[in-house]
Amino acid sequence: MSPIAAMDVCQNGSVKNFEAAGSMFEIDSEFLRLSDKPRPINVERKRSFDERSFSENSFRIIDHLENLSPAGRRSGFNTPRSCGFESHPMVVDAWESLRRTLVYFRSQPVGTIAALDHSVEELNYDQVFVRDFIPSALAFLMNGEHEVVRNFLLKTLHLQSREKMVDRFKLGAGVMPASFKVLHHPDRNIETLMADFGESAIGRVAPVDSGFWWIILLRAYTKSTGDSSLAEMPECQRGMRLILNLCLSEGFDTFPTLLCADGCCMIDRRMGVYGYPIEIQALFFMALRCALILLKQDDEGKEFVERVAARLHALSYHMRNYFWLDMKQLNDIYRYKTEEYSHTAVNKFNVMPDSLPDWVFDFMPTRGGYFIGNVSPARMDFRWFCLGNCVAILSSLATPEQASAIMDLIESRWEELVGEMPLKICYPALESHEWRIVTGCDPKNTRWSYHNGGSWPVLLWLLTAACIKTGRPQIARRAIEIAESRLSKDHWPEYYDGKLGLYVGKQARKFQTWSIAGYLVAKMMLEDPSHLGMISLEEDKQMTHLVKRSASWTC
Questions:
Q1: From the centroid of its chain, how far is CA 68?
Q2: CA within 13 Å, CB half, 333
Q3: In angstroms, rounded to a whole number, what is the distance separating the alpha carbons of residues 393 and 397?
Q4: What reactions does this protein catalyze (predicted)?
C-alpha cells in the first residue's frame, strides 16, 4: 500500500508501544497531546537584537513590519476559492498541486512528500524531507495555515529523540532526520513513522542542514503566528540545545566554520563541497541567530546563549573576510605570495595563485561580488552557489554592502545564473577530467545537469526574499515571469538541464513539491513584502567590524 493510500485509513491514536527495530516507532499519546495544546493569543515576547528594525539598506516598504500583528494574517493567495491575484490559473494550479502532496499521520497533516510523480518509481520521493518541506511550510504560514507546520515541528522533534545508528556507529543525539515516512500496519490498525538519518541516503551521509532548517522554521512559525508557546516548550528548548551542542562542541578546528562531508546538504551527492561549504556556513549562521532569539534565559539556556554569541562574532568575521570575493579581492589573490609564515601572513590559507580557474576572471564583474563555495587550507572553491549566497543575505551574514554586491552580480550575469529558467544551483558546471575526479563519474551530475550546474525552480523563493530585502523586487519579478512561462506547462519539474536551463532535467521528477511551493512563496512575498519578516534577520550592529572595502561596494 502506498503512503498516500494509507493516509485516510482508520487510525488508533492511543497506542503507546514502540518497535525496537531500526528508526520505526509510534508516537505516544502523551506527546500527541502536545500538538493539541491550545495556543495563547499572541504571546508577546521581548524583541531580540535582530528584530528591532530593518536596515537602512532594506526594502522601504517593510519598515513597518515590527508594528504589524502577524497572527491570523493571510495572503491574498489564501485559497483558490477567494478573489484577487490567486485567480491566476498558475497560482490555482500550484495550490491544488501542493495540497495533493500533504501527508497525514493519525488524521493530522504532518508535512508534504517530495514529489507526486506516478510515472516513475517512487524511491524516496514519497517521504517528507526536512529541507524540502521548508518552502511548503512558508507557503502555509503565509496563508495562515499553521497546523501542518506545528505538527511537522513536533513530529521531527520527537524523531530526533530516537537512537540513531549507521551500521554499528551511533550518531549524535542532536541529529535531525533527513526525512520520514508514514507507514500503515493494517494488521494492528496503527500508523508509525519511519525516519532516515542518513543510513539510507546516497553515500550514507547524515544531513547537517536538517537541524539548522528546523531551528529556522521554528523561528518563522513563532514570527508568523505571534505565538511563542511552542518554542518555549521544554521539548523544543531541549531539541535546540542538542542541535547546538553538536555544532558548538570543541575539537581540533582552528576555524569557526563547520567541517562537513560531501553530500550533507541540498547537494546530497559527491560534488566537491566537502570541507567548509558556503551553504552549511550560511545556514549555521542563520540558525545560530534564530536560536539566540528562541532560547530561554534559564540556567541551561543562558550558557548556550553565551556560546552562540561568541561563535557568531567569530563566524561573521571569518566569512566576511575569507569567503568574500570581488574584483579587488580576486586581484589580491592573483598577486598572493606563498609559503608565508607567522601571524603577519597575508595569504593565510596558503592558496596558490596558479589554482585560480580561468573562468572566474571572466565571471567577476567590475561591480559585484559573492561568497565563494569553500575555503580551507590551500584550497578555495570559487564556484557560485545560489542557496548559500541568498541565505547569507537573509541572515545578514552579508553586510548591506556585500548583499548589494551579490545582487549586482546576479544582474550582471543574468544569462549565466538565470537564463531560461531560474536558478542555477551552482556555476559553472564541472566538465571533462575535473568532472571525473570530483564527482567520481556520477552519471546524474553530468555537466549542466542536476547539482552540477542544473537550474532549480525552488531557488526562486530564496532569490525573491533576497531581492526584497535588498530593495530590488524588479529582479525577482523578472525571474518569476520567466518561470511562469514554462513551469506549470512542464508539470513542475524538479530541475532543468542545459547551460541556459532550456531542457527539463533528464531524471527530473514532475510535480516536485518544492518547485510548486517555491513559486507560491515567491509570489506571496512579492504581493505582501511583510511576509519577509518570518525568514529574514536584520543586521546585528554588535557584530559589525572593520572589513576592507572594495570597488564593488561603492555606490
A1: 26
A2: 27
A3: 6
A4: Hydrolysis of terminal non-reducing beta-D-fructofuranoside residues in beta-D-fructofuranosides
